[in-house]
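Example 3.2
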Amino acid sequence: WVSKPRLHVHEKNFYESQSNVADSRLPVINNFVLNGPTVDVHAAEEFVHQAMEIIMDEAVRKSTDVKEKVCEWRSPEQLKELLDLELRDEGEPEAKILQRCSEAIRYSIKTGHPHFFNQLYAGMEPYSMVASFIIEATKTSLYTYEVAPVFTLMEEAVLRKMIEMVGWKEGGDGIFNPGGSMSNMYAVNLARYRYCRDIKMNGLFAAPRMVILTSQECHYSISKAAALLGIGTKNVYVVPSDKRGKMIPSALEDQIKRAKSEGAVPFMVNATAGTTVLGAFDPIDEIADICEKYDLWLHVDACWGGAALMSNKHKHLLNGIHRVNSMAWNPHKMMMASLQCSAFLVRDKTSLLQHCHSAQASYLFQQDKFYDVSYDTGDKSVQCSRKPDAFKFWLMWKALGTTEMEQRVDRALALARYLAQEINKREGFQLLMEPEFANVCFWYIPPSLRNLPAGPELWEKLHTVAPVVKERMMKKGSMMVGYQTHRDKPNFFRMVVISPQVSREDLDFALDEIQHLGKDL
């Protein structure tokens, strides 16, 4: 890179150059002359242009090229040495900063790569990525219409469309926030406020011992919400799930009765549509019957599985979703919007979100503004500054249309079905269970273990296989697939198929590579 002029003119030199100007009227405060900017705008534009070339070449083109590595693995100590993380008093030249940009991309995981199957997000979505760039360039916060007029209206439009797809004919409310964990936290807080409104002002002294009910397969954010909001993790009652990971409705009712018999107050049930590991969908209709019987708030964590609502073929997985009180849905997962893009939806038209979280900050939410202040939505949020994440979904939706997004969901689940069929055909591979969604869970059993009978010895040895194969693929940089244990099962692989850039050949490669990396174990 050619070194360019510094973006920031050195204040001392700037002052000295200006001090020679024979004009005593120049404003000087604390030894700073204030008659001009200290940023060279043209140099700034040139720097951004050069940085964008690096981003396009290394973070977009190479990161999505199947011939490139998924990762350049380095240990933490090696990476510390390579990156020179220390922050110093003096800045570095622009050429060095551009090198830093390149290094940050090089040693990051290429989640847009066709061989990245590690998380519940993957792939490169160009329209959403461009929206992210625009968000950073416009640098605004979504609390009032006056500072974010375009993005305020876009969030309203996206929420309205998502609510329509959920099936709340009477409408609803919602907000985008930083992640599904925060959405689930909103649900807990809103459900508690609905039961005991005095708690907002008087705190926990105003409430009895309250209980949340959730399945053993739920996301850990439910326990975190209970801890953060003062409910307590011991007051999260776990409901057993069946072998496929679905909440058992009769067991839910048993736990409700247990809580009541102890003098506690059950106030909320958390169901899951698309569990993290197995991709299981709780029976929402049956759970809704029980919640209506006991007057409990029903929240569905559909951060992962909410995408099935886009598909006429697969939306049956969420049968009964129109009956729930609230729902979390992350478009940054299967819909592939850029991180983060997470919506919390609530079936309410009484401004419950506003009443629950409003602090009426007078410097933001003045009621005598010259426009309709109902568009100042920030007081619904527990945050002050909030990114306009809905724009990432809006722009993608405008570009693709509902039909193309439906096809993405259908294709992802078709690829997951193909992967499961291939696993069933191959010697040494065994499904944990037939997949219900895009989570495909399986074991690779090396030749040395294939003649062992099912039992403790096999499980103990099989438990060590996935971690070693994962280490080898990471160090080689060939792909990334997650693994974990589940209940009493030994470690198994969980492949998640999302990206439309993934082909049948990529899935075949993944199975071949696992066999290649683990056949000697």
